[in-house]
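Hello,

Our lab assistant flagged a job as stuck in the queue for most of the afternoon. It eventually completed. Since we weren't sure the result was trustworthy after the delay, we are filing this so someone can double-check. Below is the sequence as submitted and the structure that was eventually returned. Let us know if re-running is recommended.
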Amino acid sequence: MSHALTLHAAFSIFPLILLLSLSLVAVLVFIYLAKKKPPRCRLPPAPPRLPVIGNLHQLGALPHRSLHRLSLSYGPLMLLKLGHIPTLVVSSPDHARDVLKTHDISFCSRPRLTAGHKLSYGGLDIAFAPFSDHWIRMRKLSSVEFFSAKRVQLLLPTREEEVRTLVQNISRTASANVAVNLSEMFLCLLSNVTSRALFGKRSAPVGECVRSEFDGMISRSIELMGGFVAGDFFPCMQYLLNVVTGVKWKLERNFKEIDEFLERDLEEKEERIGGDEEDGSDMASILVKLHKDESSGLTRDEIKAMLMVLFIAGADTSSAVLVWTMTELMRNPSVLAKARDEVRSIAKEKDYVEESDLHHLVYLNMVLKEALRLHTPGPLLLPREAREDCQIGGYEIPAGTRVYINAWAIGRDTNTWDCPEDFRPQRFEKSSIDYKGQHFEFIPFGGGRRICPGIAMAVATIELTLANLLLKFDWSLPDGMSKENIDMSESFGIVVHKKVPLVLVAKPVN
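-- returned structure --
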């Protein structure tokens, strides 16, 4: 009897012993695995975020300035959460070099953004397309057919003729004792230069510097591309948010009107190719001829995507640079006088400055560099996307991270620039730093595979325009305005413009 009770007691506590043993084993396994578990990724520092929206509320109306202020607290490499999108913000030359050069292949793709994707015909251009064999093919095509040194030289007469037209229009306005709206004039100038290069015709009537219907379409496109699109930060709800906010319908209308315009132009090109009136030197004609050659593989949508982005890049960016440069000259009379004297000493008895004179204008080139440093036209550059996991500055950057390079902040880096907020062209006097993408403390046109391919054409047009405005006119502020109260407010977008138009008084010089 006692033996039976002993067996019963043993079997009664067996489950308890088994449970305790298994629990002990589980604890030991957990401790072992915890020791073997790889360390958590070391991510870049980040400011506190809110639920759902993350750090979106910290962007403000001028994100390049807001992000610069945040970088002063959290460092030149920050990982924000904008909505549901992990976003790396780069604000120093060294880290810019890491992204644009050392790990360029890892960061050379583009995120799919609503407006850019739609207006580039599904990412078929060279600006918004993700990195792929298609992008490589289109970039090579644009480099050979549009941005080559030969093409830039071929368009020289166009640039010089349009600058003369601008001067004539300013002279007419000045003779009527009316102040000149240079913001409007510069946009018209660049629209006509770009339109002639792309389509072989001016966007405005001959001899006039006024805005056209197509200019209005492009302005609406730029506004949509540079505006806040909620769906770009919440991919899982992108379609719904774009519908609710009305972005989808605005894009559809804008895309339709531009597509119809481009279709009409391409149809005219197709009818005229081979005729006596068609010289075939404009970009649209070249692309149509390539399209007719089936071996090229060039589609009609690719042609329209290329023309669309080249017009935006050619007109909007350069006009903004011209406005900011003239604004800084008016705020710095001694710089204006020195640049003017240089131009007039080089031009001597010439009626106009020609492009062949530009390499003599050393100080004017320094003025342009300083304007590009202080007023980088695309302050955050176009966003990139990490194609793979990568390490920057000792931090892990996961694949799919969106990357913004704050070129505006880099141009104000106190470790590189002395008194960075001051307009001092002389800082470039004995400096080899230029804007061609190899000096990462100064990247107004970007760098790496995604650098702006039209630098040579843009700089030539800007310098030619500035030189002739300084040669032909003495400039002053309207009555009642002083250099101290010039409004420097910015209007944010893909390109940052002067919010209040630049209006000056021009006095023709004999």
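-- support follow-up --
The delay was a queue issue, not a problem with the job. The result is valid. Residues 203 and 213 are 8 Å apart (CA to CA). Residues 1-23 have pLDDT under 50 and may be disordered.
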